[in-house]
Automatic annotation (TrEMBL):
Native source species: Halopenitus salinus
Gene that specifies this protein: pstB
GO molecular function, one term: ATP binding
PROSITE patterns given in the database record: ABC_TRANSPORTER_1 (PS00211), ABC_TRANSPORTER_2 (PS50893)
Region (Disordered): 1-61
UniProt domain ABC transporter: residue ranges: 65-305
Protein name per the record: Phosphate ABC transporter ATP-binding protein PstB
InterPro entries assigned: AAA+_ATPase, ABC_transporter-like_ATP-bd, ABC_transporter-like_CS, P-loop_NTPase, PstB-like
Pfam families with a match to the protein in the record: ABC_tran
Acidic residues: bias regions: 11-24
Compositionally skewed regions (Basic and acidic residues) per UniProt: 1-10, 31-41
Domain of life: Archaea
UniProtKB keywords: ATP-binding, Cell membrane, Membrane, Nucleotide-binding, Transport
Entry-linked SMART domains: AAA (SM00382)
Length: 310
């Protein structure tokens, strides 16, 4: 795999509304029952509890991304304590944890979106296919073509549906059949059938759920290897959320998907692996989603999942 990245668009970050509570239908599983036991949120974790991390190893042959002692400070504040973990290729990895625990900070390290925050200081290493993305010879804009991102609030450009999806291709000077790539991206984003007769209408005329799938089509049109999603469904209604969740499952056949979510049912439904960050920016547990939700090793993770705090 070449480490020379090509030039591509820079997405602007949106901080959107929504608190992550919007939810599609539950799965009715034992995992759901445990999560739905989140009635009592009055227990505050004690500092004495064991916080020895339990991090599942991902072999080099499976890891597309590897963080080694990766930490982030904003000024004097440590937002992310040193994280060491691998993220497996072509799986969905969910990142969960209470508000302010560093989920978005970690996600933004992966395609260097933290570069845009003056106060952010990143230490340690973050390797993408073996290459440290913070090496001096890495072009962050080109990196973001290989590691796309979808934000919480749908943010289509005030352009036609076709232009939205073709945007990244045009920026990178793609000289193939742009219309074919636009169709393929819209099909992969499960939006083609709904928009194929209105490709020249504004992307802003679509519903919120359609706009978010348009943003996903825009992110995958340049054919990235990794798609980062920062609470992609939290501003959507349950029907639109279910469509985006179905889409994420399909995307993982082709892409590595890393999704930050506040919604634990969603994490349990759609992810293969789950990383749990807790207050203070510590990665406390990482492993197979079923195991984390059914039998977490760490008491604080158990308490968080069953609603005793968070
Ligand atoms: N641009 C910034 N400048 C300064 N501090 C920041 C900035 N962004 C985040 N922080 C701080 O870093 C810590 C982690 O924030 P982050 O947004 O990564 O958490 P999060 O788990 O994604 O939270 P939420 O679930 O509420 O979105 C918080 O204490 C937050 O206040």
């Amino acid at each position: 795999m070449s480490d020379s990245y090509h030039v591509h668009e820079t997405d602007s970050e949106e901080s959107g509304a929504g608190d992550g509570e919007t939810d599609a239908e539950g799965t009715g599983s034992a995992v759901d029952e445990r999560i739905e036991d989140r009635e009592d949120s009055s227990v505050t974790p004690s500092d004495d509890e064991d916080l020895t991390p339990s991090i599942q190893e991902v072999p080099d042959s499976r890891a597309v991304i590897r963080a080694e002692e990766l930490s982030v400070h904003y000024g004097e504040e440590e937002a992310l304590q040193p994280v060491t973990m691998g993220i497996p290729e072509r799986e969905v990895t969910a990142i969960i944890g209470p508000s302010g625990c560093g989920k978005s900070t970690f996600l933004r390290c992966i395609n260097r979106m933290n570069d845009m925050i003056d106060a952010a200081r990143v230490e340690g290493s973050l390797r993408f296919r073996g290459k440290d993305v913070y090496d001096e010879d890495v072009d962050p804009v080109a990196l973001r073509r290989r590691i796309g991102i979808v934000f919480q609030k749908p943010n289509p450009f005030p352009k036609s549906i076709r232009e939205n999806v073709a945007y990244g291709l045009n920026i990178q000077g793609y000289d193939g059949d742009v219309d074919a790539r636009v169709e393929e991206a819209l099909r992969n984003a499960a939006l083609w059938d709904e928009v194929k007769d209105q490709l020249d209408s504004s992307g802003l005329d679509l519903s919120g759920g359609q706009q978010q799938r348009l943003c996903i089509a825009r992110a995958i049109a340049p054919d990235p290897e990794v798609v980062l999603m920062d609470e992609p469904a939290s501003a959507l209604d349950p029907v639109a959320t279910a469509k985006v969740e179905d889409l994420i499952a399909d995307l993982s056949e082709q892409y590595t998907v890393i999704i930050v979510t506040h919604n634990m049912q969603q994490a349990a439904r759609i992810s293969d692996k789950t990383a749990v960050f807790l207050t203070g920016g510590q990665l406390v547990e990482f492993g197979d989603t079923n195991r984390i939700f059914e039998n977490p090793e760490n008491q604080r993770v158990e308490d968080y999942i069953t609603g005793k705090f968070g």
